[in-house]
């Protein structure tokens, strides 16, 4: 896994960047010429590579136009992820998203009324998620409901699933990083940057057994179309989409 530093875009952000570096046990750098960094500016925290500035940055932005469109016009409770976790009239499952990433599916489930806890073991990614949650808490609309429904727990999924002490979730949701083999230009920039930072989840198969032991109703695994089953274990149900599928393991 790549070790990255936090850089401040302007001198006025140096103090905040140092505090973030201390909180998330990351390095603070006065400057850098290459590699991946967490970049702090007036818009918040971003993941970027200094080796290819044309790639832009990746940020957790729950108030973005893209997220607002998906929430308002993306299908709501008819979205594939909503159906996969078992949302029904009068029932909103409590979800443990054990591989949160950028938190997009977790956000959609929270917007539909689910209580969602996100686990993220990589400090740099947890810092991005926390930054997104803090900015959402200041958004006039999102602040009305998101802080009550979407929580972040910076922790290893493998350790936490086996030692879970809180209320048992109805659903454990897994979306482990899978290596993309397409041409780089065809892979979304956030996936390219995340692969540079994280690489594939080499222990992803080990998550299924503790997830099945913990979940009250089902485990849902999001996989690229054509990818093997997690731990080579055939699910109870499969929901196939254009680019992804959801493998559903009923309890």
Automatic annotation (TrEMBL):
Pfam families cross-referenced by the UniProt entry: SAM_MT
Keywords: Cytoplasm, Methyltransferase, rRNA processing, S-adenosyl-L-methionine, Transferase
SUPFAM superfamilies in the record: S-adenosyl-L-methionine-dependent methyltransferases (SSF53335)
Localization per Swiss-Prot or TrEMBL: Cytoplasm
Cellular compartments per GO CC: cytoplasm
Catalytic activity reported: guanosine(1516) in 16S rRNA + S-adenosyl-L-methionine = N(2)-methylguanosine(1516) in 16S rRNA + S-adenosyl-L-homocysteine + H(+)
Origin: domain of life: Bacteria
Keyword Methyltransferase: yes
Primary residence: cytoplasm
Gene Ontology MF terms: rRNA (guanine-N2-)-methyltransferase activity
KW Coiled coil (keyword) present: no
InterPro entries according to UniProt: 16SrRNA_methylTrfase_J, SAM-dependent_MTases_sf
Gene3D superfamilies the record matches: Vaccinia Virus protein VP39
Binding site for S-adenosyl-L-methionine: 104-105, 120-121, 175
EC number(s) given by UniProt: 2.1.1.242
Reported function: Specifically methylates the guanosine in position 1516 of 16S rRNA.
Family the entry assigns: Belongs to the methyltransferase superfamily. RsmJ family.
Name of the protein in its database record: Ribosomal RNA small subunit methyltransferase J
Organism listed in the record: Bowmanella pacifica
């Amino acid at each position: 896994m790549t070790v990255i530093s936090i850089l401040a875009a302007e001198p006025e952000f140096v103090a905040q960047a140092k505090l973030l570096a201390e909180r998330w046990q990351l390095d603070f750098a006065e400057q850098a010429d290459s590699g991946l960094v967490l970049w702090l500016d007036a818009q918040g925290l971003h993941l970027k590579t200094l080796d290819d500035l044309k790639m832009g940055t990746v940020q957790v932005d729950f108030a973005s136009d893209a997220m607002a469109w998906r929430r308002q016009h993306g299908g709501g409770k008819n979205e594939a992820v909503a159906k996969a976790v078992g949302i029904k009239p009068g029932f909103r499952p409590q979800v443990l998203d054990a591989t949160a990433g950028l938190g997009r599916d977790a956000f959609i489930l929270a917007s539909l009324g689910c209580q969602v806890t996100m686990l993220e073991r990589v400090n740099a990614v947890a810092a991005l998620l926390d930054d997104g949650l803090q900015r959402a808490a200041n958004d006039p609309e999102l602040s009305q409901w998101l802080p009550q429904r979407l929580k972040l727990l910076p922790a290893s999924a493998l350790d936490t699933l086996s030692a879970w002490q809180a209320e048992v979730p109805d659903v454990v949701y897994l979306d482990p990083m899978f290596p993309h083999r397409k041409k780089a230009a065809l892979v979304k920039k956030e996936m390219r940057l995340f692969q540079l930072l994280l690489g594939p989840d080499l222990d992803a198969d080990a998550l299924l057994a503790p997830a099945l032991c913990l979940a009250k109703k089902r485990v849902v695994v999001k996989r690229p179309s054509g990818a093997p089953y997690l731990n080579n274990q055939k699910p109870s149900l499969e929901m196939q989409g254009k680019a992804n599928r959801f493998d559903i393991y009923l309890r």
